[in-house]
Each structure stands twice: as structure tokens, then as C-alpha cells.
Amino acid sequence: MPDSKPPAPFASPGLAHGAAMRRGGPPGPALLRQSFADAVRTLPQVEAISFGTSAEAKGPGGAAIRDAGDLARFFNPFQGEADPRGRPVGGTGTTTINAEVQNYRGDFGTGNHVFEPDGLRLQAKVEAGRFDSYLRGDLTRAQGGFTSNAPGGAVPTRLSDIGLKPSDLDRIQVGDVTTNGPVGLAAVAAMDRAAGTITFDALSGGARANYGGNFHLTFTRFGFAPLEAPAAIEEGKTQEVRLARPLPTSVVPGCLVRGVKRGPQPVNDPRSMAQAVVATISDDRRTVRFDRPLRFGAVLQAADGDGLLFQPGLWSGQIWSKRSYGPQRDGLSAQAIRVEVSFPAMPDDRGMPAYKRADVEVRLKAGAGILWGYWPALWLFTWRPGPNGLGQRIQPNGRNGWAEVDILEIFTRLGTGPSVWTGNLHDQPFERQTVPSPLGGTWRSQPADKRFLTPDAASLLMPKPITDGKRHSFSVLWTRDSVVHYMDDRPICLSQWPLNVTYPHQLGINLACGSLASGNPAALFFPQSQGDAEGQFLTVHSVKSWEA
């Protein structure tokens, strides 16, 4: 797609204030003093979608989405990529891209896409297994520490070194998956009651020897077992697997599967490239057949200690627009989008880090009612449109580059909570300017890197939870060199972000339920209980857009 600028680009006060992008610099440009309605007053409205069984089409570009048939006219149930027959094969569609805990279907399933009178509820639903973080231990260096073994290792950890008692072994099963200190995952490989020890296999985050520091060690009902046969899983072909040891009883038909590439130093995140689920388990719990061939995006080898991680069958909802957006499209220079949504009501949570067992227990007790792992997102991602609203997601490092605009993300974990707004821009450097907002809030910092150049304006801690059961709007005004974020029609920040891509963007609205990538497990960024999982939803009320 050619990148030709229109002869008369959209102009609004304050969109080219490079020096002012430095936090603490000159007074904010005019856009940071305007409401969203004032900022888009001169832009033609091209879309006004209302959701719900009582929805009505109103205004320019008006449309009412009252049922799944209406929804399919404007949105896909997955992002971007499809094969020639229209079946989803990639993107965030029916797969996960951040070792997410939930999965998505390739259709608008009624259990995950629920129409209410005034909105479309994207709903998480557990169809197999149970979420249960049932036991927590301490990793105390003074007492010897915690060891998680690379493939071939079998060094045990004493129960007393991880704050457990012999009676705790009655609750633990071989194959149970634990958080591994401050980062990663480990699985119970063996237990010796007489010696009072547990042997752990490192799954991600690296192997550890005599590790301590009073970090928590959380035991979950996720399950892991290394491969026995075939010697390697053939991508897109293998559908039945023989495991080297029996699965824990928490793994049942309907559970989801992720591939774990361990290797000499197990540092890889669990991965999946298809929504394969457990179909049958043999009586000895070592042979598993799946509902479709396995696709993990990597070759899994029995000789390397690679294996499969099983988790409860948690399904969620998402929608991806058939319409394209973005000011980089031919003849355009400005794009505005406003999404009105509501979230479940949760108590306030400051999102302060906690890794020690005692601190974690205090946080969980004080945060009663927090839905751990809650991760709603409104975002735009580059794609190559195709027939019938299908197309291809432009992969990172792919041809012609890629870009992502996060209108909103809420990360409900120990480090951040439901009072924290996040709106990042990927994958080109940007600087951000903020001004005091009538909505209040305090900007939080993160370390600067080559992409994020304003480290003291990373996320916004609001005075009250964003997840309060009420309607809120989240918007962006996006030009070819800037993005302004809004919450409830009030400006939050202006980011200088010269765009260097020509492909258009899809709008995605999805409800993720946490992640097992990197350090997320130790931050409890996944449901801690069945209630945490099934209480998660995101209701979409309207989508409007303007462009010129």
C-alpha cells in the first residue's frame, strides 16, 4: 500500500511539539487541554456501532449489533490470519501469543460472546479442570534453598528449605506445576516421604541450585509431564503422545495444552500455536490423545526433556474488526477511535510488588474480590486485509514493519492492579508528555529502553479502580507523528510517535486471563481460584471512529 500524504492534512493545535514531549518541559499543547469531543470536532465521523439486543443504529456510520449474525458482519472472532478456506491459522486468534492462560475459539461461541440489552459481554468460562493455587511455600536461603533441575538432573529439595511440612505431601502430586521463585515455572518430578524431599524440574526461567531469598513458591493444579514417544512432536501432525510419567489427576479431557521447550537451560515460555485440547487419557495416565494435531511453533524432543504443560480449559472472548484503521492509509492523516466498555467491579488495589510469601498472603487477603489474571485490552495491530474481512497479521520483524497502539490494558497481578491504566505503543520509539488531568491519577515509572523514552510516564495509577462496574470510554486521536490517549473523554497523555509503517490496522477487543510468560507466574498473573477465572468479563457498549 503506497504511503502518500493528502494535500491538506488534518491539523489540530499542539500536534508538533517535539520539545514539549519531554516530561516537565513546556506547557502541554492544546490537545492536552481539550476534551475528546472538542479534539475531533472537525473530523468526519465514519462509524458508530452500538452493541446489545436493544441496540439502535444512530448517526453517521451507524450500525446495531444485536446478535452473532450482526457481529459477524463487522468483526472476526480471531485476529488476522486465515487459510484459503477461511479457517483461523494464526495471529492472536485461536492461539496465544504471550503464553496466555486462556484460549479463544474460531467462532462467536455463545458462552464467550453474550449479548445483553446494552452490550456484548466477552466472558471467560472454565469448561474443564479447576483453578486452585492450593499451597504456598517459602524459599529461604539460610536453610539451604530451592533447586529446580535442568533435564537429566535429580537434585532434591528438602521440605524444610521451602517452608513445608511432611503432611503437605498429602496434597501434592507428581506433575503439579509451581511458580519458580521470582520468575518461571517448575514441576514436581518426585517426592520422597522418608527423606522429606521434593525433586523439581525447571520448566522456564532457568534451572536453580540452592536458591533462596524468602520468595513464595506457589503450587497450582496445572500439570506437566516430559515426552516419552514420539521422540519428537511433528508440527501439525502428531496428535497422540506417550508421556514419561503419569499425569496428575487434575488433568482431565477438555484441558488445554502448551508445549515446553526445555533444553540444557530451561528458559523458554510455554507456547501454543493452535487450540488443541485433551480428548482422551489412557488408564495409566501416560498416553494422551488430542482433538487435533499439535502445533507449538518449535520442535519438541524427548531427548531434551521437553514436555507438555496442561492447564484448565479456560475459554474467553475477543472480537477483531473487519474494518481497517490508521492515519497511514492512503489519503488520510488522522484517525480517532472511541470505545465504550465496562468491567466487573473490583476493590481498589495499588498494584505494589510482592514476592515474599508473607507479603503475598497479605496482598491476597487485602485484595479479596480482585480477579487475579484479569487482562482486558483494546488495541490496534497492523494487518494485510484480505477477502471477506479476513487477512494476515503482520508479524514482528516481518516485511514492511509492524506497529501496535494499545488504547487500554489492565494487568491484574501483584505488580499492577485494576486501578492502573496502561497504553503502550509498539514497536518504534516514542516520547510522552502528560499534564494534570481532571480525572486525577499519578504517573508511575519504569526503566527507560530504546523504545520507551519517557520512563516516568509509563502507566497511570488512578485514585479509584477503573474496574468499578460502570461504563468508561477509552479513546485515541492518532496522526502520522502523534498519539493522544483519553479516558472518559479527558486527555491523559500525548506521545510523539512518527509512524514508519504503511499497512493499516485492525481493532481488537479481547479478554485475556493472565500469562505464564517470563516473571508473570511469580506475580500471580493467572487465576488463583475457579471464582477468579469465571468472574472475568468485559462488556463492549459502542465503537465510534472519525478520520480525515
UniProtKB/TrEMBL annotation:
Domain of life: Bacteria
Any one GO molecular-function label of the UniProt entry: hydrolase activity, hydrolyzing O-glycosyl compounds
Region (Disordered): 1-29
Segments forming domain GH16: 258-548
InterPro entries linked: Beta-glucanase-like, ConA-like_dom_sf
Gene3D superfamilies (UniProt xref): 2.60.120.200
Composition-biased stretches (Pro residues): 1-10
SUPFAM superfamilies (UniProt xref): Concanavalin A-like lectins/glucanases
Family from the record: Belongs to the glycosyl hydrolase 16 family.
Protein name: GH16 domain-containing protein
Organism expressing this protein natively: Aureimonas ureilytica
Lineage: Bacteria, Pseudomonadati, Pseudomonadota, Alphaproteobacteria, Hyphomicrobiales
